[in-house]
Amino acid sequence: MHPKQLLDACAELVKRTLTFEHPADAVVSRFFRENRNLGPRERAALAETAYTVLRKKLLFESLARSGSGSRERRLAILGFAHSQEALARVAGKTEQGVKDARSFVRAALSPQELQWLDACEAVRPDELMEPHRHNLPEWLVAPLQQQLGDDFWAFAQSMEQAAPLDLRVNALNAKRADVQKELADAGIVAEATPYSPWGLRVQGKPALARMDAFTRGAIEVQDEGSQLLALMLDAKRGEMVVDFCAGAGGKTLAIGASMRSTGRLYAFDVSGHRLEALKPRLARSGLSNVHPAAIAHERDDRVKRLAGKIDRVLVDAPCSGLGTLRRNPDLKWRQSAKAIEELTQKQAAILASAARLVKPGGRLVYATCSVLPQENEAIADAFAAEHSDFVAMDAGELLAQLKVERGDVLCSGGETGTQYLRLWPQRHETDGFFAAVWTRKP
């Protein structure tokens, strides 16, 4: 596709995503279905342009006040220019390759647009107002600054970058070193993740769906932080386990593999549609111990029947998702302080209901992919205060028992400073995650 046509398509996609009527990934997927003639490179350029605009929305909107053409086109030009250079660098291109990427972008522009883009790129970071540097909604800035202090700017910068591609090796039927070699033989560079024993971090964004390792279920795409949540549940062979908010089942599959496909693993979710997405992944995985079940709510009769019978329960609660802004940058524009308040009420109710399933001596893990204390420590502390039959486990000690090297650096809070798992993209190169762990008294 000619650069001019590609830029026109980018402008249309940017226009659609900025309505915020639907999640950005759904908008992008629909756009691709409507334009099936697009090749892999064109799809990558389109998606990254749209996501770059979402990541740097406040800055780009400020710059787009000047220039000519529609607002969406000006935003698309900025997103296109930034994303093409970023894609070239992620792919490990030489400086000449990066220069070629810039030339590709510039071939789509009129002389007037070229002049405008040059002026935009000449603006120095120290000349920008704070909102144009952090690109976060106003309601979110103060809480994060209070929480992070001097680390706020590192966090803001990290959230403007695309997340790395992490894989989880299926421990049921593959070994990490073997899969790493298989990927290397296919020209894909992957390194062992520093914390998860199952993880590989891939260089670039290679196509994996047609690889034998993927089709036979040896690998799944999963952030290292998400893998650690499944690891902390530490499900054993033959146990009864519940993934209470299973969604599409990424953690369910990791848990099932750690159980060696024995016992019984219930994957509950209120969305049957999300559970449908688990089916092909489950078929590839080789697991036979997973039992997906759609429930109406956290007090569903299916849940009540399991009260006091479950060895381990994971509650990956519905949350703001603000720890995943590298992957889902639209969330910061689609969430609000009021929405967070409503979520915390739901989180507390779900955790309390899920706790009833845990048998004496069993384990309960509460987790989110949020970075906000009100969805994390506040929920955990309130639960602990109201449930004296649950004893808190120290996350740092648990990770040490699980032989996670330097696991203490992944934790914070409590008297020990390692009470909770607390993952940050700027510190740990994972999505933002939180986890609290309890054991029910015998």
UniProtKB/TrEMBL annotation:
UniProt-annotated catalytic positions: C369
Q: What enzyme category does the UniProt record give? A: transferase
One GO BP on record is: RNA methylation
- EC number(s) on file: 2.1.1.-
Single GO molecular function: RNA methyltransferase activity
Keyword Nucleotide-binding assigned to the entry: answer is no
Instruction: Give the record's keywords alphabetically.
Output: Methyltransferase, RNA-binding, S-adenosyl-L-methionine, Transferase
- Which domain of life does the UniProt lineage start with? Bacteria
- What residues does S-adenosyl-L-methionine bind to? D269, D316
The segment(s) forming the SAM-dependent MTase RsmB/NOP-type domain are 155-441
The record, for PANTHER family, names: NOP2 YEAST -RELATED NOL1/NOP2/FMU SUN DOMAIN-CONTAINING, RIBOSOMAL RNA SMALL SUBUNIT METHYLTRANSFERASE B-RELATED
**Could you say which protein family the record assigns here?**
Belongs to the class I-like SAM-binding methyltransferase superfamily. RsmB/NOP family.
The name this protein carries in UniProt is RsmB/NOP family class I SAM-dependent RNA methyltransferase
